[in-house]
Design brief:
- The chain has seven helices and twelve strands.
- It is α/β, with parallel strands linked by helices.
- The protein has a single domain, classed as Spore Coat Polysaccharide Biosynthesis Protein SpsA, Chain A (Alpha-Beta Complex).
- Strand 4, helix 2 and strand 5 form a beta-alpha-beta unit.
- The two termini are about 35 Å apart.
- The relative contact order is 0.17.
- The mean pLDDT is about 95.
Length: about 230
């Protein structure tokens, strides 16, 4: 089998005072490094494709060289949207069995999550990590309109794993129809394909606003100390 990971880090960081999150320094390392280290270490990942904003391509190349990431085979420019960026990465793949798509803004990816995602993608064609919603959910605008049943609602994370041909078909169909989804699973759902949900983790947080950095730093320190 050949499994390829696409790491997407081409966001503009509009909620981070226009900082590109991918290269923010978190505990003395660029944020991107944490995802790369986990994927580089996994025996199930054969190649990694990085997708970054155009003016960061050279920075990404230097980073891959500095940290000796041997699995990073290609570094490509992102598109206008996350969906476009993933598609740009997909276009660099000639053949693969499973493609894993991961957001660089989630530095606490684990080997077990990578393994579970790939295995379930092989079995079911598509697999995504989820966590249950524990808070009460309400729908409204200025005032509450209704309370939503949370029993079948989940928060979706990355990495998301897919059979290569399935993900390629989903992206090409969306592109031809000018359909835009917030994650890759949405595009696969659109084809009518079922998606296996696997257990995610509250620790697998996404850095979105500046306040998230301190929390991520603490969690990463805890993981580091636990490993020593």
């Amino acid at each position: 089998m050949k499994n390829i990971a696409i790491i997407v880090g081409a966001g503009e960081g509009r909620r981070m005072e226009d900082k590109n999150k991918t290269f923010l320094i978190v505990n003395e390392k660029p944020l991107l490094v944490y995802s790369l280290q986990a994927l580089e270490k996994s025996d199930l990942i054969d190649e990694i494709i990085l997708v970054v904003i155009e003016d960061r391509v050279e920075s990404a190349k230097r980073l891959a060289d500095e940290y000796k990431f041997k699995k990073v085979k290609k570094i490509v420019c992102g598109g206008k949207t996350r969906q476009d960026s993933v598609y740009n990465g997909l276009c660099e793949i000639k053949n693969a069995d499973v493609v894993l798509v991961h957001d660089a803004a989630r530095p606490l990816i684990t080997e077990s999550m990578i393994e579970d995602c790939i295995k379930k993608a092989v079995e079911f064609g598509a697999a995504i990590p989820v966590i249950a919603i524990n808070d009460t959910i309400k729908r409204g605008d200025e005032f509450v309109k209704e309370t939503v049943d949370r029993n079948n609602l989940f928060l979706i994370q990355t990495p998301q794993g897919f059979e290569y041909e399935l993900l390629k078909e989903a992206h090409e169909s969306a592109k031809n129809s000018k359909f835009h989804g917030t994650d890759d699973a949405t595009l696969v759902e659109r084809l009518g394909h079922r998606i296996k949900m696997i257990q995610g983790s509250p620790r697998n947080m996404k850095i979105t606003v500046s306040e998230d950095i301190a929390l991520a730093e603490n969690l990463l320190k805890m993981e580091h100390n636990a490993g020593n």
